[in-house]
Amino acid sequence: MLGTGSVTLVGGGPGDPGLITVAGRAAIETADVIVTDRLAPLAALAWARPDVEVVDVAKIPGGRSTSQADINQILVEQAKSGRHVVRLKGGDNFVFGRGGEELLACHDAGIQTRVIPGVTSAIAAPALAGIPVTHRGLTQGFTVVSGHVPPGHPESTIDYAALAASGTTIVVLMGVRTLGAICAALVSGGLPADTPAAVVADGSLPSQHVVRATLGTIADTTAGIKPPAVAVIGDVAQIAGLTDGHRA
User: Fold this and answer.
1) Is there a domain that residue 74 lies in?
2) Chain segment 154-166, per-residue pLDDT in tens
3) Is 59 a catalytic residue?
4) Any idea what the Cα angle at residue 31 is, between residues 26 and 34, rounded to 5°?
């Protein structure tokens, strides 16, 4: 019957399908439609029903892209046709995942919507490399920022001088391209250039690897690394865990 559908926003975790929540897997198993993208754990689609419709709305850096408005429209139209829709994204939908925009679009359209949080790569990728984002005696907090635009960009809202003085671990998502500018802004803001830093690429996947350096050298050390990657800046980055460089 038309008008009886729903949308479930599922956070898929950092990449390994084993890190999806039990509730997330159940939603995938019962979905009529799964709207997914590039960083979602695509292996999890094997749990879906044979007749499920998969809609790929991936945004490829430098390549094809589906606008957020179009994605919102797909979710609403599919649900209004009476189907149960899963919006599957990597990490957590509400951590730089535009999940809030999708939730509001569905609410405005009168669509029943459910949120199933995911394991964010901001915490998971460092943890799988043996790096805790907090550690007693080293730091009492962490700050997660987007590196999608560099310091000084008109769309940047981050006060890098305040961030440099925060005393927290700094975690940068989507910052592979802008890492050099971000590190320079932090040094300019007063954070010592010899502050430990690390980049975890492909966190939770078999290809996971870790590069460690300092704030002043990490951008040069990680030249050639491609997304997805998470940068960690702070004293915790010097902690070498047993899982360093390997998927747990």
Assistant:
1) yes
2) 999 999 999 999 9
3) yes
4) 110
